[in-house]
Amino acid sequence: MPDFDASFWLLLGRCVVLVLGAAAILATLLPLLKEEAWWIRVFDFPRLQIIGVALLSALAAALVHLESWPGGWVAMGAMAAVGAYQLYRVIPYTPFVRKQAADATLLGPDKHLSLAVMNVLQYNKQAQRALGVIQACDPDVIMAVETDQWWLDQLRPLEKTHPYTCHEPLENTYGLLFFSRLPLRDARIEYLLDDDIPSVHAHVQIPGTDTWVRLYGLHPKPPAPAESKTSTKRDAELLLVGKAIEEKDEPTIVFGDMNDVAWSHTSELFRRVSGLLDPRVGRGMLPTFHAEYRLLRWPLDHVFISPDFKVANIERLPYVGSDHFPICIKVSYEPHAKAEQEQNAEQADAEDEQEAQEKIEKGFEEEEQQEAEEQRTPAEAALKLSH
Q1: pTM value?
Q2: Hey, which bits of 103-150 come out as E strands?
């Protein structure tokens, strides 16, 4: 084995630090482009991991005396800036800032509503574990996604306690099951953009009141090579719901596996357009994915609430054999505090409204193009490829 001297290892260490630092810088800059290609949007997700890489790189740079190299101080400053910027983006989802949705002040079961969303992972066969976790939590409303007919058969015991249902089991990993203990009104399955991606739309009665809350349960496709080459339709679906909420003044809750992180530009745009609150802001990230890899986790499963509600409790539930943890929230209906809560909501400006509309139109255009592609005959497809 060659006998390398200390200068070699110092040089090697500096090169490794520069490569890691450059990767962190690139992963920070790419999402600023606001392009919708999956390989760019994927860098919205690992902000915590980028913080870790940037800070470790800055620390290692000091250990290998990177400042003695030409431009070393600039490189170290860039790494520190990356860490600071990423921290700025995630700090709202920690207990170090003011809560966007206030803590509940009402006691007792009346005017309280609890909901749980659980991505079961369709090929996961630990149904009894999943069923036990949900039954122990005992929410009023349950939505299970990535559910096929097998999962519907396994979760049917929930119908004994939650007899109001709206199911759409599918074999494409986008099926959903919806169970409610409380009466439902106008419960239906809709396909907002993709003809194979369902969402549930319903009204549920708030206990102890004559008030009905509008529920949207969503599970759009993620931007990923095997799913969707862009985030266009995912973003459009979320913003389409946001625009619908903006036009109505009624208690509303949106929940589901959004395949997007809380701190992405689209999630924040959705909050501004819809006027909904994110219970995570000021409380904690509650990362739900990936359940099996501690160092690769981020919040993908969400609940957004209108200012009519305050938060009694929000928690990540135990492991159910899936790549997602379920999440459960209990809210109290406190319309007397709506005006105060609305001050915490983020407001959309004209630029936000225009961007949301453009994203929605682009989503429908992409779906039309895909439908046209699918309707081509093999001869037409071959002719296109030959050009």
Answers
A1: 0.92
A2: 112-119, 141-145
- Burial (CB count within 10 angstroms: exposed 0-12, middle 13-18, buried 19+), residue 327: buried
Chain-centroid distance, C-alpha 66 = 38
Distance (Å, whole) CA 182 – CA 27: 45
Q: Phi and psi at residue 75, in whole multiples of 5°?
A: -60, -45
Q: Could you tell me which of 200, 204, 203, 288 has the C-alpha nearest to residue 241? A: 200
The residues that bridge with 328 in the sheet, in sequence order, are 116, 315
Q: How far is CA 132 from the centre of its chain?
A: 24
- Say which residue the tokens 């049917």 belong to: 156
Q: What 3-state class would DSSP assign to 241?
A: helix
Could you state, in chain order, the average pLDDT of each consecutive group of 10 residues for the chain (387 residues)? 66 80 92 91 94 87 74 79 94 96 90 97 97 97 98 98 98 97 96 94 95 97 91 96 93 97 95 97 96 95 97 97 98 92 92 96 91 66 39
* Packing angle of the helix pair 72-90, 6-29 (nearest 10 deg): 40
Q: Which two tokens stand for residue 369?
A: 């193009």
DSSP of 25-48, one letter per residue?
HHHHHGGGG---BHHHHGGGS-HH
pLDDT of residue 63: 76
Which is nearest to 290 in space by CA: 328, 329, 261?
261
| pLDDT in the model for residue 3 | 57
Peptide bond before 112: cis, by omega within 30 degrees of 0?
no
Residue with tokens 């500096």: 14
What residue type is 69 in one-letter code? Answer: W
The predicted-structure confidence for 309-337, as pLDDT tens digits, reads as follows 999 999 999 999 999 999 999 999 999 98
Maximum separation of any 2 CA atoms in the chain, in Å: 81
CB 196: neighbour CB atoms within 10 A?
12
Looking at the chain, list the stretches that DSSP marks H as alpha helix, in order from N- to C-terminal side: 6-29, 38-41, 47-63, 72-90, 127-137, 149-155, 232-246, 265-274, 338-342, 350-375, 378-386
For 127-165, what is each residue's pLDDT tens digit? 999 999 999 999 999 999 999 999 999 999 999 999 999
- CA 245 to CA 226: how far, in whole Å? 31
Distance CA 155, CA 31 (A): 39
The confidence score (pLDDT) of residue 372 equals 81
